[in-house]
Structures are given as C-alpha cells and as structure tokens.
Amino acid sequence: MVTVYDANTCSVVQQVDIVDIGGLVASSTITANQLCYGSNEGEIDVSISTGTPNYTIDYGTGSGISSTGSYTITGLTDGAYTIIITDANSCQAILNETITEPTELQASSISGTIACNGGTTTVTVSALGGTGPYSGTGTFTVGAGTYNYTVTDAN
User: Fold this and answer.
1) Cα–Cα dist 76/43, whole Å
2) Does domain 23-99 have CATH number 2.60.270?
3) In the chain, ranges of CATH 2.60.40 domains
C-alpha cells in the first residue's frame, strides 16, 4: 500500500503490486573445439532461458550481437571467452568458456645408413602432437634416394 499526502494533509491510499520479472538466466555449451592447431572452428552455444528480449551478446571482440533468443557463436580460435549477455532491462548474465586446440602436428624421421651399393635401410617416421591415431607413420625399408612422407592425424 502506498499513501500519498497533499499540502493540506489529505491522503489517498493506493495498492501497488510490484512483480519481480526475474533476472536474466543464460547458459553456454562448447559445441566444437579446434580440430587442428591454429584453426578457427570453435563454437559456443548460448541459451537464454529468462530475461526480457532483445538481448545483446558480447564475447570480447566488440561483437555486440543482437539476438531475440539463443545464439551460436562461431569461428572461434583457442582461448578463454567471457560472454556478457544484456537484456532490454540492462540485466546481465556473465558466462565463461574456454575453446581448446590440440598441439601442433609434427613429424620426424630417423634413418639408418646403407652398408653396400644397392642395399637398403630402414626409415622410421613418427608423429607428435595433433590428435592420434596417425596415418603415414611406421618403419619403412628403402633403397638410396629422396623420399617424402605425409603424416596425418585423426582430424
């Protein structure tokens, strides 16, 4: 109840109902991390369950994306992201996610020497980093010459 008085102390009583519309509630889920070192295929889904549309979604790049509901942020590189969602009433939800990437794929080889003309040796090709399992690795028996090996990871 609210009572209002005028200069003559006359009053009027009015009932005022104040309704709490609830705060802004949002969540986030990483839907894609990096498949390869140095790529930009990370994705974060932002779900907004309560609040007053329209929303502004900012994830640290000056993005300021306008949305009427949930949104998928795409093209992300590895790193930590702070996602700030602001609704039409200036209520905010702050979410934190980290996009990861595998280490850089590297290949190496070790070869023996050929003891006699026309002989063979072994070359061992191995991989480090990336995402296993790898293809193109192993031990190969070869004669004299120059060889190129291609190593790929699971991605």
Assistant:
1) 6
2) no
3) 23-99
